[in-house]
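Problem: given the chain below (109 residues), write out its structure.
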Amino acid sequence: MRQDFKKINRLSGSERFRSVLKNGKIISAASAKIYFADNGINTPRLGIIVPAKAGNAVTRNKIKRQIREFFRKNKDRYSGLDIIVRINSVKNGWLAEFKGAMGKRFGER
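Solution.
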């Protein structure tokens, strides 16, 4: 199975973001909040919010790459969902905590 991150897997548009943030369910972790809602299609879509306080542009882009990579490897689990990851803080072990929260809610990998 191919595991690429195509345009169809990206959540874009402020209206879609608002809808998921307002009507979606929330998983809270110390480093991130994860919002998810059904999207009515069989394709999972991902949106990422990383604030400037998380670090400089290099750091923020690295965070986004790591989240996309995790989503890309596990997207078969999120079929039919729109997911938004909002990063709160980036401390040591934030990625493991994020993966643990996602695994706890959607199954381990």
